[in-house]
UniProtKB/TrEMBL annotation:
It comes from Alteribacillus bidgolensis. Gene3D superfamilies: Photosynthetic Reaction Center, subunit H, domain 2. Pfam families: PRC. This is PRC-barrel domain-containing protein. GO terms for biological process: photosynthesis, light reaction. GO terms for cellular component: plasma membrane light-harvesting complex.
Length: 255
């Protein structure tokens, strides 16, 4: 199931023994567009504090109750190794963090080339000792992850500019995240520049380049292809719509 980043930010985060706060941001790596950490505003439980949680800890998302349930206690979260919630996150911090929670390591070169090590699903890394994995040396390599902020891309009022091959078409307004794999599959683009009042769903597969210093996303699509991209209705994010998005971007010709 797909969830919008903005809607998940309104959900309550629940540990096994009570509420821990709400999501303030998502950190994703800029190569795979996979969310690696949830930035949690821990008020009022821990006033003024933020915590990072891995999607590996998310047991399920309940859209009816608008809750995200993690299989950790408050004490586990409170005593986790410190990680910089304002970025950058170092690879050594990640290793310490994953070892503390008993999670396998997600990055390529450790346990495979999937989105999450050798797996497409985050939860498959639960109860794995990273120090017993083949290729652990790769996990300690001096290469830090490039974490980016979803909040930065979509902005509080207006997000990154989005351009087709031939001209600017709008700006990023939201992202759609796949439950389980936690990959950002689509960027919801406000296309009022082309079609007033409309939002279109743009696959991250057609992102040619992101200029992180100039707040700009370049697509491999033309303006006309953007116009034909699936329209976005936040009240109708169903599995039927998800299939429609998938079919549009996985056919040989965009229609």
């Amino acid at each position: 199931m797909l969830f919008s980043g903005k809607s998940l930010a309104r959900y309550s985060l629940e540990a096994t023994d009570g509420s821990i706060g709400r999501i303030e941001d998502f950190y994703f790596d800029d190569e795979s567009w996979v969310v690696r950490y949830l930035v949690v505003n821990a008020n009022p439980w821990l006033p003024g504090e933020k915590k990072l949680l891995s999607p590996i800890s998310v047991e399920r998302i309940d859209p009816v109750e608008q809750t995200i349930i993690v299989d950790l206690t408050k004490e586990q979260i409170k005593n986790a190794p410190p990680m910089d919630t304002d970025r950058p996150v170092s690879r050594q911090q990640e290793v310490d963090f994953h070892r503390y929670f008993g999670y396998g390591l997600y990055w390529p070169g450790v346990s495979g080339a999937g989105l999450w090590g050798g797996s497409p699903m985050a939860r498959n890394l639960v109860n794995q000792d990273p120090f017993e994995e083949e290729g652990m040396e790769a996990g300690l390599a001096d290469t830090n992850p490039n974490m980016r902020s979803v909040r930065e891309i979509i902005g509080e009022f207006s997000g990154y500019d989005v351009s087709a091959l031939d001209e600017k078409v709008g700006h990023a307004d939201n992202v759609l995240i796949k439950d389980g794999s936690w990959d950002i599959q689509y960027i919801v683009t406000d296309t009022r520049r082309l079609l007033p009042g409309e939002h279109h769903v743009i696959s991250t597969r057609v992102v040619q380049d992101v200029n992180w210093t100039q707040d700009h996303i370049k697509l491999t699509m033309t303006k006309e292809e953007v116009k034909r991209a699936p329209k976005y209705d936040p009240e109708d994010l169903t599995t039927t719509e998800e299939k429609r998005f998938y079919d549009h971007y996985h056919t040989s010709h965009r229609t």
